[in-house]
């Protein structure tokens, strides 16, 4: 069916909190599909990083792309002093002075939600133009202000990964091994139904 699955997301897809990251849902799903896996997920990152990691990937041919999208309030910035990007996360302990100013003076929920929808529209158009098979889903609970018709966006506004794996989570809410198993099995069934 697919020779490779290429996944991207935040800590819910990276295997954060597991002793062995090969027990994360991307690796378990690849095993079920008898496919190779490239997991580009990274803790704490936002949708801009998730989308760009797929767009900049050089080995997409014959692959299934799966993205566990995160909350649109995670906004990516570039730190010119360190040369690294960072993402704002609401209520994170130890917020920098910059982040505090951003949340207090510059963040607007509706603006960043609409920006997320624009990014998603461009990303799905890019996937379609490149004849890519893909699935998208919300890893975290998200407030969708309006219903959008986005192909292959699973459970849009109805549920998210947290709903699917509950109560199989670590104390901080991340999926435990059983949670990752449930997610892999859920996606496996959907893939067989959609692409089998």
What does this structure look like?
The chain starts with a strand and ends with a helix. It has 196 residues and is an alpha/beta fold. It has a 4-stranded parallel β-sheet, sandwiched between helices. Strands 4-5 form a two-stranded antiparallel ribbon. The mean pLDDT is 95. Helix content is 39%, strand content 16%. The chain has one domain: SGNH hydrolase (Rossmann fold). It contains 7 helices and 6 strands, in the order βααβαβββααβαα.
SSE-based structural type: alpha/beta
Strand order of the biggest β-sheet: 2-1-3-6
* Total domain count: 1
Determine the mean pLDDT. 95
Please summarize the sheet with the most strands. 4 strands, parallel
In N-to-C order, the SSE pattern is EHHEHEEEHHEHH
CATH architecture: 3-Layer(aba) Sandwich
Uncertain segments: none
Shape: globular
Radius of gyration: 17 Å
End-to-end distance: 7 Å
């Amino acid at each position: 069916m697919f020779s490779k699955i290429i996944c991207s997301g935040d800590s819910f897809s990276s295997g954060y909190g597991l002793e062995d990251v090969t027990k994360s849902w991307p690796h378990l799903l690849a095993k079920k599909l008898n496919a190779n896996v490239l997991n580009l997920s990274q803790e704490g990152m936002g949708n801009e990083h998730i989308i760009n990691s797929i767009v900049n990937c050089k080995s997409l041919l014959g692959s299934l792309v799966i993205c566990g999208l995160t909350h649109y309030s995670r906004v990516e910035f570039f730190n010119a002093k360190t040369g690294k990007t960072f993402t704002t996360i609401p209520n994170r302990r130890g917020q920098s002075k910059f982040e505090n100013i951003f949340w207090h003076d510059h963040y607007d929920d509706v603006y960043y939600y609409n920006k997320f929808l624009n990014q998603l529209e461009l990303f799905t158009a890019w996937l379609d133009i490149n004849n890519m098979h893909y699935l998208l889903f919300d890893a975290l609970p998200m407030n969708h202000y309006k219903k959008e018709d986005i192909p292959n966006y699973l459970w849009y506004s109805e549920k998210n990964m947290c709903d699917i794996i509950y109560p199989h989570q670590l104390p901080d809410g991340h999926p435990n091994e059983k949670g990752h198993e449930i997610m892999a099995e859920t996606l496996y069934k959907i893939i067989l139904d959609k692409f089998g």
